[in-house]
Amino acid sequence: SGASSSSSASYLAQAAALQDHFARNLRMSGAGNKTASLVPGSELTLAQRYGLVQRPAALLTVEEWQAAQEKSRKRQDSCGECAICRDEFRDEDQVLLSCSHVFHKQCIAAFEKFAKQRCCPLCRTEQYQKRVIDDGRQLYRHKCATRIQACYKGHMVRVAYKSLRRTIPYKDPRLKRRWLEERIQEQSAALVKEVEEDRGDLDSFFAELDASVAASKAQMEQAEASFLRRRAPSEGGQSSSNRAD
Asked: Which of 14, 59, 83, 230 has its CA 20 to 30 A from that of 145?
């Protein structure tokens, strides 16, 4: 009697679970707000717990995610383009699906919104799981760093080559003649510049000398005028005394 009562209770519970499942699907009043979802990690309904309807897939483990990412890396998906927008991943957010395909985060979100289904655009895997990765961002930054280094090395090589060409003449006679003419012109220009700089120094020196002579002359004239003014009264007194005698 105990076994029959327990089995009856189990049947009643399963019947209630099925009733709840149908009520959810029909959106009947009093039923739950959400229907049975197959999205991994979603909350199970009563019918799913009893195994009466399909359950969502279990969440992937860390090892399974690593295997999916390694599979994507072997195909070099992050080195190519996003299959939805046909653009490179660059420094934008990237999403890895449980089926090992990668897309832009915004692209797969827009695809889910407008397609109204959770299906991989490439392999049509339904109810996939997704995780944000940075493979595309790392590859893009590595590519940018490589280009910057290449440009810098090229610049340094060109600078070194120009410096080397200024010291070592060409073997070709015409190029060697042109090289010698350029060196002679450079030496002539440097010599003229040095002479002009020296001439400017001499001009400034003579200008200072002329100014000093002019200042000295002005002081001498001022001293002479002062001396004459002091001498004039004494000479006047002597002349008057001579007339009195």
From this structure: 83
